[in-house]
């Protein structure tokens, strides 16, 4: 498989920190980044592990609610925050410095470490966009951002439009695709663009598949393994039929 949709984890892989520095990057380039040293891994806790074990893995003896104000501030300063997380770190720091007990309790209700709190707050607050107002922790203490799939529109078993819908009726759309040995896909989640209209959701899915097939067709000239020309033609024909069925104006009958 060559191409995949960029996930939240991938977006956060290169942290953008709070304090400026300049580092070298690949291909001889440099870029400005903002540095905060890391506490813990950015990856989710493995299944079967607990947050307490996670703390032990990184030499932390106390959960964050048991720390002093200074210890909490240090833990926050030491955390590697990606761009999507920086506002949470800043708000938490402000709550501590202002001795805002209500806001501090809000953050610390989401977990036992900075890592745990930041990921859960981020997901919880994004869930609000989709109408979820309660905290729903799974058995390992994490808030799930996945949406239930209400419809799947299939070209075949590997090329599918997934339509998710939240409690307030908002849609999120992802696709699974395959054009030979290349392919990818994801499950609808609160991190996808919220869509209010069903037909627009379907059009969004069709447009995304069209983009993948256009790319694949262009690269099939030099890479027929990943991008099989015959298979791509079949997929594009099927997608045209799908587009007519779901998006063409319906002619009204007089009888």
Description:
The chain is an alpha+beta fold and 255 residues long. It is built from 8 helices and 6 strands; from the N terminus they run αββαααααββββαα. The strands form 2 sheets. The chain has a 4-stranded antiparallel β-sheet, covered by helices on one side. A two-stranded antiparallel ribbon has the order 1-2. The longest helix has 22 residues, at 198-219.
In terms of topology, how is this protein built?
Layout: H1 8-11, E1 19-24, E2 30-35, H2 51-57, H3 69-77, H4 86-97, H5 101-108, H6 114-127, E3 149-154, E4 160-165, E5 171-178, E6 183-185, H7 198-219, H8 229-247
Antiparallel strand pairs: 1-2, 3-4, 4-5, 5-6
Keywords, please?
alpha+beta, four-stranded antiparallel β-sheet, two-stranded antiparallel sheet, 37% helix, disordered N terminus
Order of helices and strands: HEEHHHHHEEEEHH
Rg, rounded, reads: 23 Å
Major sheet characteristics: 4 strands, antiparallel
Number of helices: 8
> Overall pLDDT, averaged?
82
Helix fraction bin: 25-40%
Question: What is the approximate shape?
Answer: elongated
Number of strands: 6
Structural class: alpha+beta
Largest sheet: spatial strand order: 3-4-5-6
Low-confidence stretches: 1-51
Strand content: 5-15%
Gap between N and C termini: 52 Å
Task: Write a concise synopsis of the structure shown.
By secondary structure, the chain is an alpha+beta fold.
């Amino acid at each position: 498989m060559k191409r995949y949709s960029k996930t939240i984890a991938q977006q956060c892989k290169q942290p953008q920190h709070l304090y400026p520095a300049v580092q070298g990057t690949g291909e001889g380039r440099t870029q400005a980044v903002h540095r905060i040293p890391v506490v813990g891994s950015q990856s989710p806790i493995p299944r079967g592990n607990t947050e307490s074990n996670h703390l032990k893995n990184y030499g932390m003896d106390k959960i964050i609610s048991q720390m002093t104000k200074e210890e909490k501030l240090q833990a926050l300063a030491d955390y590697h925050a990606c761009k999507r997380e920086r506002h949470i770190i800043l708000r938490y720091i402000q709550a501590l410095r202002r001795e805002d007990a209500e806001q501090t309790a809000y953050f610390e209700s989401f977990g036992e470490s900075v890592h745990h709190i930041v990921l859960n707050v981020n997901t919880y607050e994004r869930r609000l966009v989709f109408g979820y107002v309660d905290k729903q922790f799974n058995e390992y203490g994490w808030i799930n951002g996945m949406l239930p799939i209400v419809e799947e529109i299939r070209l075949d078993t590997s090329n599918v439009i997934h339509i998710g819908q939240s409690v307030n009726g908002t849609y999120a759309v992802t696709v699974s695709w395959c054009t030979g040995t290349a392919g990818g896909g994801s499950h609808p989640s609160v991190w996808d663009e919220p869509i209010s209209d069903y037909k627009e959701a379907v059009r969004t899915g069709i447009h995304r598949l069209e983009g993948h097939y256009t790319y694949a067709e262009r690269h099939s000239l030099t890479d027929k393994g990943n991008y099989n020309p015959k298979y791509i033609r079949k997929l594009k024909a099927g997608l045209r039929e799908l587009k007519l069925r779901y998006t063409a104006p319906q002619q009204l009958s007089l009888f």
